[in-house]
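Example complex used in Figure S2.
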Amino acid sequence: MPKYQYTQYSKGCATCQDKADIFACLCQAELDQIDDTRVEVHFKTGELIFKQGTPNMHFLCLTQGKVKTYIEGYNNKNLILNIVKPIEYILGPGIYADQMHHFSAMAIEDSVACLVDLVTFKKLIRTNPDFAEDFLRKVSLQSIYNYELFISLTQKQMPGRIADVLLYLKDKVYCTNPFHSTLSRQDLADMSGMSKESVIRILREFKDENIIRANGNDFEILNIDHLNKISQTG
Amino acid sequence: MPKYQYTQYSKGCATCQDKADIFACLCQAELDQIDDTRVEVHFKTGELIFKQGTPNMHFLCLTQGKVKTYIEGYNNKNLILNIVKPIEYILGPGIYADQMHHFSAMAIEDSVACLVDLVTFKKLIRTNPDFAEDFLRKVSLQSIYNYELFISLTQKQMPGRIADVLLYLKDKVYCTNPFHSTLSRQDLADMSGMSKESVIRILREFKDENIIRANGNDFEILNIDHLNKISQTG
DNA sequence: TAGATGTATTGATATATGTCATTATCTTTG
DNA sequence: CAAAGATAATGACATATATCAATACATCTA
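Predicted assembly (468 residues):
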């Protein structure tokens, strides 16, 4: 008999090796509180995890797979904010504002995530200053990354934006150099704020100049210095 | 004899009517702690308040005037993030990351600000959960606004972006309808991610269509519905 | 295996937007 | 007040980028 998606696994948070680093400062009793309201869920590639505009009830910790978070804008155009990999958590700004999701999340690989009730999370923020500070640290780093994204998207031309995307995938997501991605060309377009046709054209230029090797979704950055320069010069 | 810029005024935080709303949850003793490390500073129009890349040592509460915060990008191009008015505070993400400023701040009117030592601020975050939660609320609202900015800047065409800037100035900054701004055309360009010439052209179009009245830096939005529609349709 | 469906690629074309040069207007200052 | 300097406005032009249409390729499914 298969495990149901809402199965709460017996392995507790205290002994879990796959928990987000933000939980490092929690004691056994605090981890048990999280464990009590925790649910582990499996998502298949392409499945929507939560949708912009719906109530935000859970803290989500990704333990397996990969997830894209994206803002749904006008004319069915999306802007991908992050590609989240294990073990990172996803928590939008809605929790301390209007309790809503302000971006959507979708699995781009088969994924597993733990959902933790937000009441528990917020209680821990109030009672454990180290936890609160760690959370503020994470929020701040995300904010700093957003500033970089602002500059990339608004002040760089297409080659610079694609360079940024490729470097992001190599350094922050897959963390290897020849890397295989499950992102479509449309996803790359949604990360760089351009049309998919333009993405394809720029990738071709990079290939023709031997800056990258790209075969379908297998990428290898051959000339990192050159790619960095393209990122710099916009 | 004139007051020096570093003069610490005698009026305490406890009785101050000009303090940011985030301080509402602090008790007398906590406000006194802030008061002890507080310095009031006057800035003239055009003066740099702090610069991106320098150490971030203070929480800044604006009590008079107006301030633009902006990211300094490539090729001397800036991206204005916010126009801050009294009584709001300015606090970047650096405090909980690398202790650096990640954007610059400049007075666009003669301004007065209180600077509070960050050690005191961070101590209060740790010891007063209400204060921490209020701060998280503020950070979250800023983050949500940034998402809107992302969509405006990356998915809208110039008329939509200018519409967003005009509505922002009317609703969030000057809060009156005929309003007078001290922002240059270049500033409007830095808010909407375009060239100043393009700003001028779009403003002219809006004038020709009787959507706005614009005489130098005096603006009046004549047809709010139309401007909202332009903002929506991009 | 063949058809169907979605995704990727390419080329031709349209268009939004930036750049540059020039003139106009405002603001400062001696 | 006049000169100088900054800011604003306008037009001509260049170009980055999107759109549209056609084809190729891959992947699923019956």
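Chain B has two domains: 21-151, 156-233. The domain at 21-151 of chain B is CATH 2.60.120.10 (Jelly Rolls).
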